[in-house]
């Protein structure tokens, strides 16, 4: 659900806030002792409209590239890492992306503040994922990645939220980043093995320090899940939170975190409309249909962590997807995503049904063919029968021969917020034994 916020500040105030946000970031990063070059200006430049449908419209050519060069000066040297490590920020301050009371109109003022205040965090996450993937064949990459995580863990990075941004977006940035970091650490065993070999100043290991940091980060995310559930906000953001806490739950044997992740998974499937008078109305996620022309993209985006939870949960012999009703709901949710990719007008009909103004809105389809194939790859890794059921539905809808997408089409895809390459998540799911005793009761439970 979209929350209201206080009255919007004036343009001069927004310009001051944009500069203040970058000033805060520079102060945080300046702890490295490097003299800062001129910071990029997050204020809205001439020629850029305030509101748009595309995030990229909010930036002039080369602006984000210049930001990356500015951030690079704050890297800290780190033994074994050629490029060092981005300085760890304890305080995170992000900003609202969409126009007030809208779930799809981009506010370029907030978008620019968000990007220039937190883009370096995405860079750090991407570098950890890359080192984790390289770690399986390179001991040097494993040691580098483990040390990069250790540095941020020792600094208690991302454990506080600044008061000058939008708290909800800051919480999400931390949650997404935490989920990607912890998943990369969990699904790449060589990275964790390297961390166990690194000794810390107190005589412990980097692995212990990293896990302690993950536990600390999981606390606020867990609290957010409870808060949003109390407000009946079981939407895509909640599903990503459910995925974010799962690797830490498994690595620390935390039954309560495991139970909470499973509840998010079950609640996500519970949001799928089923049993409608008109079968064409089944399979949709109503919250995501409130996203106007982005509804198709958001149903895809929401489906991703649900499939990822189903797959990753198999890695500990837990398997969240259990029972015929759950399978039927996941099948329909995924079917509608793929049918919507084929014919976006069926999504527009649901937008008219659930949206505030009751209008059919043409759907944005950027990147949807790639995403459709990736979702089917994940489905096939969960269970080939799930993939086959969805593919049959899609073939019947499109009139194309089966398979519409081969099960391996999305195999080379990855997502930093999921921890990296989809094949690595699938590989982790293929290593299950019986559930560890600490979480066995949760895994055996029916929901």
TrEMBL record:
Entry's Gene Ontology molecular function annotations: lyase activity
Superkingdom of the organism of origin: Bacteria
InterPro entries xrefs: Alginate_lyase_dom, Chondroitin_lyas
GO cellular component, one term: periplasmic space
Keyword terms: Lyase, Signal
Name of the protein in question: Alginate lyase domain-containing protein
Domain Alginate lyase: from-to ranges: 191-344
Signal peptide per UniProt: 1-36
């Amino acid at each position: 659900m979209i929350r209201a916020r206080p009255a919007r500040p004036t343009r001069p105030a927004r310009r001051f806030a944009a500069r203040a946000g970058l000033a805060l970031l520079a102060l945080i990063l300046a702890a490295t002792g490097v003299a800062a070059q001129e910071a990029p200006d997050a204020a809205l430049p001439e020629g850029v409209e305030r509101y748009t449908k595309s995030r990229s419209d909010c930036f002039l050519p080369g602006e984000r590239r210049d930001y990356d060069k500015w951030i690079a000066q704050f890297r800290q040297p780190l033994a074994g890492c050629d490029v060092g490590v981005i300085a760890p920020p304890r305080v995170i301050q992000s900003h609202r992306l969409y126009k007030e009371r809208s779930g799809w109109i981009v506010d370029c003022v907030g978008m620019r503040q968000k990007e220039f205040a937190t883009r370096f965090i995405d860079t750090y996450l991407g570098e950890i994922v890359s080192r984790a993937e390289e770690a399986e064949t390179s001991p040097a990459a494993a040691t580098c990645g483990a040390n990069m995580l250790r540095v941020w863990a020792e600094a208690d990075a991302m454990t506080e939220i600044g008061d000058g941004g939008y708290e909800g977006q800051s919480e999400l940035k931390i949650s997404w980043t935490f989920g990607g970091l912890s998943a990369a650490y969990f699904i790449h065993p060589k990275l964790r093995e390297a961390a166990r070999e690194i000794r810390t100043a107190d005589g412990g290991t980097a692995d212990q320090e990293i896990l302690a940091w993950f536990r600390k980060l999981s606390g606020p995310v867990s609290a957010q899940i409870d808060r949003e559930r109390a407000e009946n906000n079981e939407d895509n953001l909640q599903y990503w939170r459910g995925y974010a806490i799962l690797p830490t739950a498994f690595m620390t044997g935390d039954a309560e975190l495991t139970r909470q992740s499973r509840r998010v998974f079950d609640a996500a499937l519970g949001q799928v409309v089923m049993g409608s008078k008109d079968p064409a109305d089944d399979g949709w996620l109503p919250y995501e249909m409130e996203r106007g022309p982005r509804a198709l993209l958001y149903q895809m985006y929401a489906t991703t962590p649900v499939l990822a939870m189903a797959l990753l949960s198999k890695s500990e012999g837990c398997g969240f997807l259990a029972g015929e009703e759950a399978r039927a709901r996941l099948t329909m949710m995924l079917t509608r995503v793929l049918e919507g990719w084929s014919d976006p007008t069926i999504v527009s009909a649901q937008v008219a049904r659930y949206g505030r103004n009751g209008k059919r809105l043409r759907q944005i389809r950027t990147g949807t063919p790639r995403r459709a194939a990736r979702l089917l790859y994940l489905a096939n890794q969960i269970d080939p029968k799930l993939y086959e059921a969805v593919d049959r539905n899609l073939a019947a809808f499109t009139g194309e021969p089966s398979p519409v997408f081969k099960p391996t089409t999305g195999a080379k895809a990855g997502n930093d917020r999921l921890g990296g390459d989809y094949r690595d998540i699938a590989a982790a799911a293929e290593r299950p034994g019986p559930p560890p005793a600490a979480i066995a009761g949760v895994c055996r439970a029916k929901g």
